[in-house]
Each structure stands twice: as C-alpha cells, then as structure tokens.
Amino acid sequence: MTEEVKRVFAFGKDANGNNVTEGNTNMKPVLGGKGANLAEMANIGLPVPPGFTISCQTCMEYANAGNVWPEGVLDTIHQYREDLEQRVGKKIGDPKDPLLVSVRSGAPMSMPGMMDTVLNLGLNDESINGLIAQTQNPRFGWDSYRRFIQMFSNVVMGLDGDLFENAINVKKAQRGVKDDTDLTAQDLQELVEEFKRIFSENVDPDQYPDLAREGVAVFPQDPMIQLKLAIEAVFGSWDNPRAVLYRKKNKIDDNMGTAVNVQTMVFGNMGDTSATGVAFTRNPANGDKEFYGDYLVNAQGEDVVSGIRNTSPIAELKHTPGLEEAGKELEEVFVILENHFHDMMDIEFTIMQGKLYMLQTRVGKRTAQAALHIAIDMEKEGLIDKKTAVQRVEPEQLDQLLHPQFDKNATYDVLCKGLNASPGAAVGEVVFSSEAAVKAAEEGRKTVLVRWETTPDDLAGMIAAEGILTSHGGKTSHAAVIARGMGAPCVCGADALHIDADKKEVIVAGTDVVLHEGDMISLDGSTGDVVLGAVDLVLPELTGDLDTILSWADDIRELGVRANADNPEDAQLARDFGAEGIGLCRTEHMFLGDRKQIIQKFILNDDEEIRADCVAQLGELQKGDFLGMFKAMDGLPVIVRLLDPPLHEFLESPRALDVEIAHMEEQGAPAEEIAAKRHLMEQVDSWSEANPMLGLRGCRLSIVFPQLPKMQVRAIAGAAAELKKQGLNPQPEIMIPLVAFESEIETLRATAEEVVAEVAKEEGVELNIKIGTMIELPRAAVIADKIAAHADFFSFGTNDLTQTTLGFSRDDAEAKFLPAYLEQHLLKRNPFATVDDGVAELVKMGCEKGKAANPALVCGVCGEHGGDPESIMKFAKIGPDYVSCSPYRVPLARLAAAQAALAK
Ligand code: PEP
Ligand code: MG
C-alpha cells in the first residue's frame, strides 16, 4: 500500500468563524511562501479570505509525469473546493450568488511576478447575473467578467494580451473616452462578447477537445474546467522561460515547484469604499521606520503594479473618506505582523466595501543599506537579537555598499553580457592597450580597458582604467583576479566581443555595433552587463551601520578572515576592512613594470654572473616591497608566497614577436635587427610548454632555480629584521607553492631556514619565520599528513586545486564548456566561484590529516572561494581556520563567516 500523501491544505475560517487552517509559516517547502504565510496570518487572527493550497510537490509530480495528474488529486481538490463553498456559503458558478476564486502561484522562494495568476474564476454567462444581482452593480459585474476572460485567455491559453487590449482601445475610440473607467456596463458587456469571439478565433479546438463545440473552441462555461485548466497553467508557469531564468540568476532549485493557492475573491473595485494596495512595514530603500507603499481606490491588484493609474501613498489611506477604519486597521496589522514575524514584511491587501483583507505577506526585499539599518533598529527595539541581526544581511549585498553602481533610475539597453567577475560599475572610453589607458588617465580621461585577456603586462592600464572588459577567460582569469584584488569593476569572458586590437575596433556579434577606440561604454561587474554609452553611476553612502553589524559578526564567527594583497595600499585597505592578516601575497605581482626587464634578463641569460646580478637587483627591490607590506600589517601575519607562475608569463608572446618580425621584414628593417628579434623569439619559444599550468611553475621553479627562492627569503627576512630593529612587530610567513611531494617541501624548507638563520645572524636579531605550503594538488591533500610534518601552515589554493581535481582549465573552462554544463544541470554552480563538493572533500581531508600529524598546523583557504559566501559556509564545517580573499570582499567574508558559525 502506498502511503497517503497530503497534498491539499485549507486556510481561513469555517462558516462558524472557527479557524480551520492546516498549515503554518514553517511549511514553505510544501505550501510555498504565499500559502504558508496566508496560513500563518489566518492562525494569528488576521483577516484572510478563506481558501486552500495545493502543494509544491504536486506541481513537480504533475510535471515529472509529463503533465499528468497524480491519481486521486483532482478528487481531493474538489473535496476542498466543496468544503470552501460550505465555509463561505456560496457555490462556484451559482447563477444567484456565485463564489469567485483566485488561482495564484506561490513558490517556496519568492519569485515576484515570474509565474501566473488567474482572478475572478467561476464567472460564466449565468453566474455573471448572480454577481450583478448580489452587488447591484452591473458595471462591476461585466468588468469582472471581461477581466476574467482576458486573464484566462492570456495566462491559461497563452493568447497574446494585445488582442484584448486592442479590442478595449477600439471600444474606447468608438465611445470617445480615454480611460477604461469611462466604459459603461453596456460597453463592458459588449466587450465580453467580443472577448469570447477572440477566444474562439484564436484557440485551437484540437488542442482543447474539452472546449470544442462543433469544431470551434468556446470559452469554458463549466467552472470545474476553468479551475482545472487554471491550476494546470499555474503549475506550467513554474517552467516558463522567465521563471527558469529567474531561478538560474537567483540560484533557486529547479525541483522545488510552485504551490497553487485557490482563494475566495475579494474586490477592491467595488466603488469608493474599496481599494487595493501593496505596502512594506518599513522603508525597503533606506530602512527608515515608516509605513511604505501605495494604494488605489476602486481598483484590482494588477492596477497598482501595472502603473496605469497614479497611486496614493499608504500614509494617506486612513485619511481617505470611507477607508478610515480599514486604514487604521491596516496600520495595526503592520505592527502585528512585525511583532509576529520579527522582520520587515511586504504586504498585499484589499479593502472591499470598507473591510480589510490580507492577501499576502512575506519578508520584504530590501537594499543593503536598508537591511543593515532595519537589523540594527530591530535589535534595539528588542524584536531580534544580535545573532539574528547578523543573519538578516546577505553578504553578497554588501558589495552594493563598497562599489559604485549603475543608478537604479537609469534606463539602458544591454549590448552584450560577460561574466560578472568583479563588482561595481564603470564608465569610460574604450581603449585597447594598457599604454592608452595610462595616457588617457594622465590627460584626465576615463577609460574601460578592452582586451582579449589581460596579462601581467596590463597592470598599469588596469589600474589607470575605470573598468576592465575581456572577451576571454573566466572568473579566476588574470583580469578577474587582479580586478577583484584592486576593487576594480570587471566583466570577463564576454565572447560576443570580437576584438581587433590592431585595427582598434570591436565587432559585437549578434548586433550591428562596431566599437572604436574612444567610444563611451559602461559595464556593470556585478551583473556582467555591457552597455553602449554612459550610464549614470551612484556611489552609495557608507553608514556606520555596516561597522556595527560587522562588529557583531566578529563576535560570532569562528573562521578568521585574511586578505590576498601584494602591495602596501591593498594591505592597508584590507586592514581597514577588518582583515586579520595577509593570507596570500603573490610575489609575481611585484615583478612588473621596470622590474620586468630584470626578470626577463634573468630568464633569457644562461650566464651565471648576469643571473646573479639580476637576482641581487630583484632582492633589493623585493625587500622594499616587503617593508611596506609588513608595516601595513604590523603585528599580523603576512604570508608571502615564493614565485609561482611559469616564467614565460614574464616574456613577450612568441606569436606577438612573430608578427613583429613579419612587420619588420615588410618595412625592410636592417637584417641584424631582424636576426636579433628572431633570436629572441627562439629563446622565448624555448620556454613555452604544451601545458604550462602543469609545467615549470610553483615550487618546481625553486628546485630548478634555487637562487630565486634564496633571494626572496633573504628579502623577507631582511625586511623583517630591519623593522624589528625599528621596534615594530613584523610577522612574515613563507609559503611554498604547488607542492606535490613531501620531499619538495622538505628540501625547500631547509634552504629557507638556512637563509633566515644567515640573515638573523648578520642582522643580530631573532627571527622566527613560519614556513608552510599551498595545497593545490590532489596528491598534496591525500598525503597531507606527510607534508604537514614539514609545514607550519597549509593554505589551500582552491583555484588550482579545482583545476587539478576536476581537470578543468581555469583559464578556458568558463568560456568553453561550463555554460553548457550549467544549462544542462550537469553542475549546479561554477566550481571556480563556489567550491565543488569533491574539492571541498580534499580540503577536509587535507585539514584532518594535516592537523592529526601536526596539531599546531594552521589551515587557510586563499583561492577565490575564500570570498564566496556559499563556499565559506562549506569551509566553516570542514577544518580551515581562516579564509583569505581580496580586500574588497573582507567585510562580506566576515559576515558570511558569522552566518556560517550560526548555521552550524
Ligand atoms: C590558487 O591556486 O587557489 C591560488 C590562490 O593561487 P593562484 O590563484 O595564484 O594560482
Ligand atoms: Mg595557485
């Protein structure tokens, strides 16, 4: 025997005024948000029109069976329908006094406006007479009927809404009137006939045999058919394209389904003592404690949102003749709702002939600024405690407070989209080279640097430009990582852009737009939108509320938060944002600009003397870098990673050199110059590898060129010694990247210790510099116990660990095939943005084995996942002691870490 599953749930009162509600607010997964809160409002005695809710699971069962009803469910629905008729003392379709119902969607997560609703269901050519007789209002009756046919045809049958709007416009023109409200009962009755005709002309009778009469589809007169089709349409709307897109964007599970609420209709359009409106219990834009919202007298719900009539502010409701009592009651309801839900609520209500009804309530959406303000106010008011306040702000929302944004009131067309790689918005002239960006900045012009992909060479331009746009690369591409580190807006991987940097133009695929250098564009790194022209930007105000919430978060969180930074300015910014140290200083970022020539000379010369000279020069410069970093982070740990990238990244690309040689030949350049270039190209070529990401990089560089780590360790130790002598408290730590074998760390650690000891002796200071490793290879995680014997700390480089565990190239996957994986639901998340469970398992194993072998081992995560709230949730449960992220994400990580601790 199969277990009986309850699929339908009543809400509201029975005929004797007793509450017969079967659900409550905790049942959102079953009843959807709307159904669960209608139940809850009924339970706390608020005026809710009675009805019933069909569960979200029924929607999924129906969909998964290929739009076939699970056995017995239609019977159950009809039992609940009969029960509802009994409770309100009216029958659907009754020619004397018909019950009319609304059929509304309502998913577990709010998806405003994405799915379907049908109002006034139950009207037909007979029950319309009953409605008119009961209300003594023929105009209202015919208006309700024409609205029902219009909505049913559009929502349930999928007919174009314009067919009906055009008919209304024709009628208004015939009658010489401007507004819908000027149409008479007679006009509306004629429109009903016209609408039925449009219905018959446009609905395919073969597709709806139930509606076919003599080969023509007829508007359904049987309310049971109306009800069944409407429920099926609402189920179906779960999978309409806009709902699917909304879910994708908001990371909502496609398998939740929507509930369907069948509810007694109440009318806000029954004259001047009727009204309808939407409201928030507080201001959702800035968080002020004031009732906020709009209403319309003599109107139905969609009139308020559609903006066809001018609404009045909610504060005026209680002063509106005929609506005073309901207005006062509504304000009491606001207070009851906040006291009950302990949150800012968003409400839909209707007043029917002076009586207030609540149609919906849910936790109100709000801006970051409002979220902070409301949480703090509610804590002060005793409605919530600090732990709850900290959970009331979405970490991702904090980005809104830290970067310029497109003005919400601005209108614009999106030219193309890329990956939302680094938040914030930028407006500037298109430039194609780092030099052009720098030159423009010197001249006071703002630019957006447009590149196929950026390289370390572009750093100056990236700093000079307002924003960065690439046609290639993913969220951990060079452009993305650097932009986030700088807090610069960046859209990457916008593959519609076909960039010809030589011609200085970009063809935008799918449009007829060709961008040229100097053209103004805007980009929004929070959404990935690219716009032709200048969009207005706003800098949201930073309020003290952010500090307050973050200080509460700090008291709660267990995970530490450090920053990835490689210059003193970023280190200082990170510290200001609350970072407790530097989790990753990528030293290769210190080898750019003028210094690049030195490292190039090192790479391209075999002569040991020349190389030694290069190393000596670099060592001096590095020491200066570290002095600044350690000073900015005085007293806090600064993990300096030894040189990591393949060396050819510091060289020109052989392809560019090849092109240059061709140009030189074409222009008849001197033979010896061409020969020198060719020699350079051959040298450069000799450094290239088929799989550079699996090549001569990470600790392998230190094994092959031991002079490099020695120089770096000497610079680190030297800077620390100098600052110590000045009375400061530098806390550098040395990190060896991309270790796979314990022998690698063993030997490199010994070298580093030797150098530190030498410097300590030379300088006459005591130096205790911790030495640890990055865990970026599966082997390292699996044998973490052996590696931990030689390490003071582990830092999980989850960018590379994702790449090496999944075998997905971090540079190409997001552009080439990840979109297909996401679209086809093979993956739920981009694993370079949110840590994959398999990779997380390796992190867990690494922490457990490492700490078991070396209890003093400190573990952190310094890949991009360290700044992702969802990943932070996972890390909090599996062993790392801290996360490290770009400075601009530090506040967000502090908050997410607190929420993770509370979730535990
Ligand atoms: C990593 O691989 O996660 C990491 C932090 O190092 P990088 O991004 O510099 O390779
Ligand atoms: Mg790495």
Structural class given helices, strands, pairing?
alpha/beta
Strand order of the largest sheet: 16-26-25-18-19-20-21-17
Broad shape: elongated
Q: Just give the CATH class of the largest domain.
A: Alpha Beta
Total helical elements: 34
User: Which distinct ligands sit in these coordinates?
Assistant: phosphoenolpyruvate, magnesium ion
Low-confidence stretches: none
End-to-end Cα distance: 39 Å
Assigned CATH architecture of the largest domain? Alpha-Beta Barrel
Top keywords for this entry?
904 residues, alpha/beta, Dna Ligase, domain 1, Acyl-CoA Binding Protein, D-amino Acid Aminotransferase, Chain A, domain 1, 8-stranded mixed beta sheet, 8-stranded parallel barrel, elongated, binds phosphoenolpyruvate, binds magnesium ion
Explain how this protein is built.
This protein is α/β, with parallel strands linked by helices and 904 residues long. The chain folds into six domains: 1-124 and 222-265, ATP-grasp fold, A domain (Dna Ligase, domain 1); 136-221, Acyl-CoA Binding Protein (Up-down Bundle); 275-363, 2-Layer Sandwich (D-amino Acid Aminotransferase, Chain A, domain 1), CATH 3.30.470; 404-538, 3-Layer(bba) Sandwich (Glucose Oxidase, domain 1); 557-646 and 689-903, Phosphoenolpyruvate-binding domains (TIM Barrel); 647-688. It is built from 34 helices and 35 strands. The strands form eight sheets. The protein has an eight-stranded mixed β-sheet with strand order 16-26-25-18-19-20-21-17. It has an eight-stranded parallel β-barrel with strand order 28-29-30-31-32-33-34-35, surrounded by five helices. Helix 4 (127-135) packs across helix 5, helix 12 (368-380) crosses helix 18 and helix 19 (568-576) packs parallel to helix 21. It is elongated, with a radius of gyration of 33 Å. Phosphoenolpyruvate binds next to strand 29 and helix 29.
